[in-house]
Every structure is written in C-alpha cells, then in structure tokens.
Amino acid sequence: FARMGILGHLGSAPVGYDLRVNDLDDLLAVQAEAKAAGNRFIVALNSRSAFSLEGGWLEGTDALLALFYGGQAQNQALAELLLGRKNCSGKLCVTIPRTSTDLCTHFDETTRLERWGEQVQGQDFSVRYSEGLDFGYRWNARAGVAPGYPFGFGLSYTDFLYSDFSVTPAGKGFDVALRVTNSGAAAGDEIVQVYLGEAKVPGHIRCAKVQLVGFARLEDLGAGESRRCVIH
Q1: What is the tens place of the pLDDT at every residue in 76-102?
Q2: Smallest Cα–Cα separation from 140: which of 194, 212, 202?
Q3: 150 vs 30, 95, 146, 154, 228, CA distance in Å?
Q4: 2 sits in which H/E element
Q5: For residues 158 and 187, what is the distance between their CA atoms, to the nearest angstrom?
Q6: Which residues does 103 contact at the CB level (< 8 Å), separation at least 6?
C-alpha cells in the first residue's frame, strides 16, 4: 500500500507527482523481499490525482491498483477485487504520466511566474491557463507525448471484443452502435468510450485534437455473452 507525495497530499502548485521519500524506499524494499521469496507483488496506491511512474518501482510490480478516493467501503471492495470475487471495471479519469515532466501542468520557475504570477500571502491571485483546451489527455494528443497509462485505460479479468460498428445521424448528432462480446471466462462490466477527432472549423476557433464525447457501461456481461451498445 502506497500513497503519492511525502504526506500523501500536495500543495497548490506541485512540481512532482512521483511516489516520494516516505513510501518509495519502503515499497522497493518490500518488493525485493517479495520477489526473493517467489511471491507476486501488487501495489495498491491511494492518491488524490494522477501520479507518475518514476522511481523504478513499476518494473517489478505484477499488478497496480489505482484506488484514488476509495471511501469507507474501499477495504471491502479491494479485498473482493484481489480475491477475484468481483471483476475490475474502472477506467482512468486522468492520464498517468511516465514522468512528472510529461504533464502540461509541470513547470519551472519561469513558467510558474507566467502562469501563477507573484503570489502574496493573504492576497488574491489569478492563474493563466496557457494550455487552453489542451489539458489532460487532450494535451498528450496535441503534444504527441505518450502517457504511462492513457485516459480511459483499465484492465479486467476478462477480455472484450468490439464488432459490427455503425455511425448514423440522429437528431442533431450521431448514434454510434457496436456489439460488445465477453470473450473470456469471467463475467464483468465493460465501459465503451467514443472519441471525436478534430473538427473542421475556422482557424480562429480552438478545437481539441481528440476528445471523449460519450460512454456507456455494460453491466454483468457473462462469459461468451454479446450485447449491442448505442451511444449518442
């Protein structure tokens, strides 16, 4: 079990998102002992935001569970997932970077002054969001920076196959339809996501290179079961 940052939380203007001093050394020591004993090594990480994969801990990790804010029911839920009584189905609502410098929010002193200005204790200040629309996974797409784990990523104890795609006009938008098949041996939920590419708009209008425009959760898809999904 680990957490992000020295105290598990960060200040208002962090420069690093790695697992820092208090947890990383302990984590690597336990990892080495586990591997020497022939055990599997699983990291359950609590964090309030994205975290980077720096520090060399991921290479020897067999499974990573990003718990974020699990709440009071976290322990029961985690036990059921680890024991296979429930199937993992969550998808990342943030981008997990390889390093802290792979984020559009990472900045040096010059960039800090540009974005935050001179902050004075007890006085209001303004923040300049110079990335515009291109924040999070949109920034990765625009900048061509490969993430550690992309927005929308999430593994399961089974596999899902997508087939029979169609896109048809509906109202003022489109209906995206497809068939989802559970091709594995375990029942599980799948979250289907639809992304829209960059629109053809005049040059003075800003548009994200790619953005999530719809999603649907298919619950309790049994082994071998197929279900049709329509997302507007």
Answers
A1: 999 999 999 999 999 999 999 999 888
A2: 212
A3: 28, 5, 8, 9, 25
A4: strand 2-3
A5: 7
A6: 17, 50, 97, 139
| Tokens 């303004």 found at | 126
Strand order in the sheet with 63-66: 2-3, 42-46, 63-66
The helix/strand/coil state of 140 is: helix
Element (H, E) at 112: helix 109-116
For residues 75, 76, 81 and 84, what is the CA-based torsion angle, rounded to 10 degrees? 140
Alpha-carbon span 100 to 51, nearest angstrom: 8
Q: Which residue type sits at 144?
A: G
State the Cα–Cα distance between residues 212 and 140, nearest whole angstrom: 14
What are the pLDDT digits (tens) for 102-135?
Answer: 888 776 778 778 877 787 888 887 888 878 888 8
Question: Which are the contacts of 201, defined by CB distance < 8 A and separation ≥ 6?
Answer: 207
Residue 142 backbone zone (phi > 0: left; psi -120 to 50: alpha; other: beta)? alpha
Map tokens 């990383």 to a residue.
24
Lowest mean pLDDT among 10-24, 63-77, 79-93, 154-168: 10-24
Q: In 5-150, at which residue ranges do the beta strands (DSSP E only) sit?
A: 42-46, 63-66
